[in-house]
Amino acid sequence: MAELRRTLRLYWVLQRASVRGAMQYRANAYIGMLCGAVWQGAGFAFIWVVMHTFPALGGWTLGEVAFLYGLRLTAHGVAMIPLFNVGSLEQLVREGTFDRYLLRPLDPLVQIMGSRLGLSQAGDLAVGVALLAVAGGTAGVEWTPGLMLFALTAIVGGALIEGAFYLGLSSLSLRLLDTFALRVFVDEMFSKFGSYPMKVFGGVTEWLLTFVLPVAFVAYLPAAVILDKFAHPLAYASPLVGLALFWLAHRLWRGQLKHYQSVGS
């Protein structure tokens, strides 16, 4: 427990230093956040245009799809703000700079996460929260304390699920060197398929996006409960699925770390 408290304290110190460093160039930081917000806003604008042609998608109205989009985007922002720099692992390995993290008396993963914050993902988070607030009212969500707690745990669970895949695939860079294409593919699966009701993709695809690549657990199943579309028991498992997957991803990270060979080896 003492070691965990020390690690969290050092991580917080590193993140504060990262934010202070980024804010030395305020214009650049704000532009990054604005670009993230505009990019995600453009993604929802496409859905808005589509749904002006088709009033409902899989039985979901525009307000309900907007809420689903906001829930997924909020989970994405929560995951990627702290984990953003993990994606640079393959570059650190190629350049040989990853060795520096191994020489310091702190978990290399904590050092990488703490060295750079995902400021553009803060824009993603802002758009997601705004959509949840606006679309929740449009879709007629009645926020009770229990429902708010469920939404919060669903966001954390969704963030852990997406973060687990990002960490797991990035950790493969310690041996495969180049995992960029694989990471982009999985990210596209989460962002594209996770923003729509699963019913529109058909039975087989819906099953694959639930039990093979658990995209449905990030937002679709929890949103269905919050919007009172249906109460699938699996919707309540999102935090547990997230914890299990993130634990496995961290185990994979530790395993790959043991097999890492310096570029000078």
End-to-end Cα distance: 36 Å
Q: Sheet with the most strands?
A: none
Strand runs, count = 0
Total number of domains = 1
Number of helices: 13
Class derived from helix and strand content: mainly alpha
Q: Please write the string of helix (H) and strand (E) elements.
A: HHHHHHHHHHHHH
Overall 3D geometry?
A: globular
SSE layout:
Elements: H1 2-22, H2 26-53, H3 62-83, H4 89-95, H5 98-103, H6 108-115, H7 119-138, H8 145-171, H9 173-176, H10 180-193, H11 203-211, H12 220-226, H13 238-258
Helix pairs in contact: 1-6, 2-3, 2-7, 3-7, 3-8, 8-10, 8-13
Protein described:
The mean pLDDT is 83. The chain is built from 13 helices and no strands. 73% of the residues lie in helices and 0% in strands. By secondary structure, it is mainly α. It has one domain. The protein has helices at residues 2-22, 26-53, 62-83, 89-95, 98-103, 108-115, 119-138, 145-171, 173-176, 180-193, 203-211, 220-226, 238-258. α3 crosses α8 (145-171).
